[in-house]
Structures are given as C-alpha cells and as structure tokens.
Amino acid sequence: MHPYSDLSAPHFWRRSVPGQPWRDLRLVGAPKFQIAASDRISTAGSCFAQHISRYLRAAGIPTLQAEEPHPLQYELGADTSSYELFPARYGNIYTARQCLELLRQCVGQIPIIHDYVEENGRWYDLLRPNAVPDGFATLAEAQYDRIYHMVCVHHMFRTSDIFVLTLGLTECWYHAGNGHTYPVCPGTARGQYDPELHKFRNLTHAEVTADLDQLIAELKQLNPSLKLILTVSPVPLVATYTDHHVLVASSYSKSVLRAAAGEIESRHAHVAYFPSYEIISHVASFGQYLQSDLRDVADRGVHHVMTNFLDTYLEGNAAASDAPPDAAAAPAKRSFVSAPLANTAVECEEIYNDAPGLAR
User: Fold this and answer.
1) Which of 3, 12, 143, 351 is deepest in the core (most CB within 10 A)?
2) Mean pLDDT of 4-11
3) How many domains would you assign to the chain?
C-alpha cells in the first residue's frame, strides 16, 4: 500500500481521461459551497465572464442588477443593453488590480477616478470606454454618472451573496501620474495614447496573488458573508505588447492567472475555483471548442463550460462528497440549459489592440 493506492479514478490520467468523451468528463467534484435560487449573484471580469450572467438567467437564476437605466431612457426608447452585461456598468475588468481599484473607489478608500476624453462632441469614461457606448453629452454628465456608478458598485459588493470573477489578462496599461489601471490602452478603443502618461506593465504571479489577496480581504470587511468563485478566461491574448510571440505571451498570462487563482483558492474556505480555462484549453479537448481562428470559443464550448458550472454549483445538483470513485468523472446529472444560447456574442475591448481606429 502507498498514498496513491486508495485514490479514486479522477486522480489518475489513464483511468479518467483517455477513455472518456470530453463532453462527459466532469472536472469538479464536491464544491466548497453551492448557489441557492435565492442567492444574489454578481459577476465581473473579462469578456468571457459575460456568458455567466446569460446562462444563469436562462437557468432561471437572476443575477443581481445593481445599476438600472434611468426611467427616461425607457420612455425615450434608448438602447439599454449596456446595463445587461454585468450587474453594474463597469464593462470588462481584465485584471484583479482593476477590480481592486474599483472596490477601493466605491468604498472611499481612494478617490473616485475621473479620466475622460472628448470625441466628436461626446465624452467617454476611459475606465469603461465601451461600457457606456454612446458616451455622455457633457463632461459634467460623465462625472456625475461615474459617481452614481460607484454608488451602484458599492451596493453590488455589499449585498451580493456570490461574486464570480473571471481573470483575463496580466498585460495592462496604467496612468503614470495617478497610478490607476485601464481596461485597455488609451488610443485603442477610445482616447489618444500619450507615451508620457500611459505605461505598460505585465503583472507577475506575485503581483496578481497580492492583488487577489487584498481584494478578498477588503471584500470580507465590506461583506463578511460573501463567497467568491474564481475562473480564468480560456480566450488567448488578441495581441501582446511584450517582445514574445503572442502564443508565448498568452501562455505566460494564463499560467500566471491559473497559478494565482489556485493558490488563493487553497487558502480560503469561501473562495472556489471553477475550471473554465481547462475545459476549453486542455490538450484532452483536442481544440474542439475553438472557432476557426483558434482563439474565440465556439457556442458549444461556452455551453459545455456553463452547463458544468450550473451542474456543479446550483443547489441540489452537485456531486455528493461521498459519491463512488468514478462519480466525479460521470456526466452531469441534468442540464439546466438544454442547448447553447442563440446569442453568445460578447463585448470585448481587447479586440481593439489589433484593430486601430475600429472604435471611431
């Protein structure tokens, strides 16, 4: 007898990987916690995170809506779809550092960041350049909306029961004077690039881990009962500003994020990790869930990720901790969404890194 003798099939490659169709392989055993139908769920992260809210709604689990359109927008027939992507109109949050800065603004630990640009008579918030696609009529309106936005974000963090954060990138840009982090380099989606003001950084494992540690600690101060689910986006970089090939840069970025998420998850009973990245990107998937560009995730891949997510975390449907040895590798008990959603297109600022002027 040795330490491996009594381990179940999912602990072994030969017993659980080659003989199973990838669509049936369950990569998560008994979860740390589950999501009840009454839980208030909020989501944030890279563009892949937008799928989580859509599938939760399709499964009959509404996500928290902390920021609502003004009633006049409905009366005037304005496009309010930008409010539906996330619980508040912060748009894509690609790094843990950006999320930490958002939290610190809304609780008053740091001043609200005001960084705007005027284009064609409209004002845009460079901290969420596409989250408010039509911009604002005046600078004052943009400033007031950001203050209101912070109130909504504070409400979201304070009242959520579950917060799902999808980590997307290690590469980011920041303001040299004020230090704040952008979702995308100014001059791509909106604004003008200023080499004196806009600086590049590629976050290390130590930096991502420290940012996540601080985020979790400060969220716990604001909302002691909040539980977190960390995921890593399986979508590679569209472009890199490092000297490496984009494939090598993507490998670094995803490796750092996955390692940091795993380290953080192991430290905290109220923080779980869900393997979105592995389901899509693992060699055992044979790339079957990627579109022809080998970067974007096909609808059936999104569906596989999200049905596994729902089957794992929705209350009463996860694998029992006392399940027989092969149960963790068995197909999920039932699918909450029977087919891929018809519209899984996502809003993604990072695409502008490879499309100068596309946002104009």
Assistant:
1) 351
2) 91
3) 1
